[in-house]
Amino acid sequence: MRKLIVFALLYLMTVLNPAFAKTNKSICFYYNEVDSIRELLNFDRVVLDPSNVTDKQISELHNAGISVYSYISVGEYDESLPDYLKEAKRTDNEEWKSNIMDVTSPLWHNHIIQRVEALKKRHFDGLFLDTLDSFNAYADEEEDKAEYDRQVEGLTKLVNGIHSVLPKLIFNRGFEIFDKINFKPEAVGAESVYKTYSATDDSYSDVSESDRKWIMDRLNHVKSAGVEAIGLDYLPDTDLEGRVELAKRIAALGYTPYVSDGMLYGMGVSYTYTVPRRILGVYDGNLSEDNGSAIHTRITTPLEYKGYIVDNVNIYDIDFSKVDRSRYAAIVFYPEGGDGYRQNHELTEWLKSHVGYLPILFLGNLPDDTEVLKAFGITSEGELEAPYKLEKKPALSKGIINPVFSPKDKLFSYKVDESKGFKVLARVTNPNHGSSDLVFKAPWGGVAVDPYPVTSLNNGQDIWLLEPFGFLDLMLNLPEIPAADASSESGLRILTSHVDGDGFPSRSWFKGGPLVSEVLYNEVFKPIEIPQTISVIEGEISAGGIHADQAPELEALARKIFELPNVEVASHTYSHPFTWNMSDPKSHLIYGEFLPVPGYDHVDYDREAAGSVNYINTKLCPPGKKVKVFLWSGDADPSKEAIDKVEKLGLLNVNGGNTMVVKGKDSLTNVSPVIYWTTNGVQVYAPMMNENMYTNEWTEHFDGFGRAVESFEITGHPRRLKTIAIYYHMYSGTYQSSLKALKSLYDYALSQEVTPMYLSEYAMRARTLYETGLAKTLDGTFVITSTGIRSIRTPKSYGYPVSSNLVGFNDCEDGNYLILNKKRSYVSFKKNRTSNPMLKSANGIVNKWQLNNNRIDFEILAYIPLKMKVWSDKKCQLVSSHEFTQSSESSVQVYETKDKGTISGTLICN
Length: 910
Fold this sequence. Notes:
The chain has 21 helices and 52 strands. The chain is an alpha/beta fold. Strands 1-2-3-7-8-9-12-13 form an eight-stranded parallel sheet. Strand 10 and strand 11 form a beta hairpin. The two termini are about 50 Å apart.
């Protein structure tokens, strides 16, 4: 009984302590290919297969404070042996199909040391030494003690040699040499404390009492020597609850836990574990690129808002080894056309055997394999004859128009049995008593087939026939999770302004015909003192460009603009290519392939990017300023190779997307995602489209840009989908009407509660939207890790945030916007707001917010006169070198100053 009480106390002191995960370093063993670091960010240390991670990813993990260890097999060689190592082989490992090596062999020692030196050059922090005890397969201690001792001595020498090259080492077992080596490893791990895995038959089973005692005796010996012990156990990814409980049991023994699948291909459970955020979005690569697919253009935006990340995957290229419940929350199929189902036999087999494994939503069409349909409880009865009559449930599509059917439409008849858990939401019937269930909720997910969920109108507009947020909520039943948010900073909506350089040399219609760029300098850039990101096209203004005779005047004006303290410098290319995809046919390009720069006969992407940036940096930028942003030109639809080129220049890249919504044209199909993410780089979409979209490609209604206010409002309420972004071209300075419309947008934006920032600052946040870690500790506390995101939106149903390193939160109509300024934050929630003072909002960037009892030391970068609101039931005293006025709004204290810049001070709230 006494032992039981001690165990319970230990359990409560460790596992249920909210500070537990902060003081104990979590670990992750992941041997699959690293396509993204987003889940790895959830752990303090990660052990990776070096062939499956890039140097760039290692650097990104280091930037987030994550220690990166490389897996290395010390006693075995997994591939076909090269000739120079064949003499060092002793026997085979039949279960894992590898070669067991002689750890006394100089050949093997040299091979291992060379590998360690190569791994050190790649900046791994340390090594995880596996297969340390494999020599036991050929050197039995009881049968041949002398040979056993010789092997132990050889292994000891080898491991000491490894340590001399790269000192931070974690052992997998290696108990035979633990007391013989001349150093202490960082940790010693051992597999199968409670649960084990067999690769032979892919099975999981309990560890016997005798085996558990043997492992625990040795791990306890490790602990007694002051070295961390790691217990590595195995359970399938379908049992997250079981994994968490098993991790708690291992932690209660005093070992660092890690519970994962037997191949270590998914994300496991340590002191922290990943909250699945990925949605597998399946498109047909024969019909479109991933960023032009219906998955990206239609489905990503609402799921992105909810905090989920859509992995766009070609239906012909699905890697099922990566589709696991530890990372994925659901699958959405939207392969327009349907041929992909027929041509991918592996997919159809996987579908039949994985019904219910993950929620699945089929959009547009269904597989035509009757066995697949049968597995999902769907009956297909062939083509349904017209005419059609629609029956639908109004709640799902309130305010949304109905699809229009014509006698030429060809619909297929799909039927489900509502007595078996299906719920039909839209159905068509015909006079012959035929019917088809077009939209239905299923126990495993749901279906919306043509013409649902999106249709095209005669004016070319694609519109949702269903309310997308409610529809996706119903079909996928996704948990409400903290959502990484790029629309906000310090609790308020972000405001940016950026200008494409097009038309810089053009003359305006103002008196005297000044340059449009000069009009904007005098009317916008200089007097409106908010951050503005301004670009030029080299070929338009340089001495070697198309206006060579005006170059001195144009370059002088560009320098004057870039000297403004509120202006950030950007490049809008050398010749303004109208396409950024070399394989794209040019026949559809209205204006040609690029501007007719003398002597420039084909697009050179290096010249467009690196060349234009170098020109601006050396010829136009004042001291202390350099180009920070590259603004895509033309269709702003760069290939992955083009994005990679700009990323390698160390620049942020922005533009593209298609966000433009106005009254009467407000379908969410017109709101693009925040970013286009690739494994090599990230394209940050312009949050809003420019004046071209409001003026019929700059052919009429030159005051039409004023309607962008409608876009700002629609994307701000009832959900904050986008920032307020004023994006336009230099030629907006051409007419009185266009300039008036432009200035009205600035007036509107500055009348709102906003946080102005440079486009580069926004892009730094946006580009990490998907590379933000979301995890839970074993006690349920959320862990949020990001090197860029500073805002997290949580559902109001969560309650109020509680955190020792959270700046604060703003309660808005669509949730609470948490304010972060650390790379890692631990957050829990309770029904009532904490009595500690917290920031509610500020119109600047919080660089410091340090709470010590009731004292807060702060530093905020404000580009406009600072206004901040602080949650406090008591009036706080503000001490600062800046003069503030103070007022109260219920339990909120409001502080304002006429000063801007870096504002620091101390709040004392007694």
